């Protein structure tokens, strides 16, 4: 499928005004193929405020945020850019997203990441219920971002197009999370700042496979590989060598300060696809673990075979670090995919179902011809 170019601007609602949502407002406003028509907020104090103010644009956009779901659906937008928190309400958010497409509104969402790929994680009947809602409303749902998302689905699969033989594909995030503002994720899910004998949800058996298994499975699907079941999980948690304060949680010396985990897909017992995360709250900790070649964070793709290839992908914001720009690239991957998702067949759609997605129309000082 070639790149989709809409005949007229698509009408978009941004769902949330938090760490991803405020960047999504900016991104939709800047995109020549999109028109911002509505904004949802979960915060009563933000109800009625102009979207430009909530996004920190320094100017009004003439669109007021609302806490009223039905008011936004009644606008009949072409698509919702959904950036609301889903990590702590996975199944409730699936109900929300399914309701949107049943009501005839296409959705691009940063979560829940369990929907990154349709096979192998959720029961088939749950996926079928999403597809049926899409057929009823004539709308599609696409969940993506940067990780899980572009850095470990589209990017590695595009690289494999250069391969003669593939022995192993490894996708890694290596990052200092000290400036990552997500208190629930950092303390409750990861367990940073908690005693090492604490049992945060993420380290319970099977949870890593639920969260990041779709990454391993979509790579395998893109390569035509059937993986052994279950996927293999490996976790190495380390204590903080010194006390540090992050923007999300204080990490006292001796509490959990770093973690390296892997989700591995094997074929006949041989590792073929590996997802790895190396996450620190102190950039100087665990020097024996992988570190970025530059900056405070990177995504690394390593393909072993003929030939052997490695790409290290980094990003940083003009006025912030890699965690700020991480929210931007997550939002923009969704925003730039809107035309392709609107044009896609109804139901749950992964990156394998979409055509070329680019930053068309976003080059400074230019205007893409329609």
UniProtKB/TrEMBL annotation:
The keyword Transferase applies. GO terms for molecular function: kinase activity. Gene3D superfamilies: NAD(P)-binding Rossmann-like Domain. It holds the Pfam family DAP_DH_C. InterPro entries: DAP_DH_C, NAD(P)-bd_dom_sf. The keyword Oxidoreductase does not apply. Keywords: Kinase, Transferase. Residues 152-357 form the 2,4-diaminopentanoate dehydrogenase C-terminal domain. This is Diacylglycerol kinase.
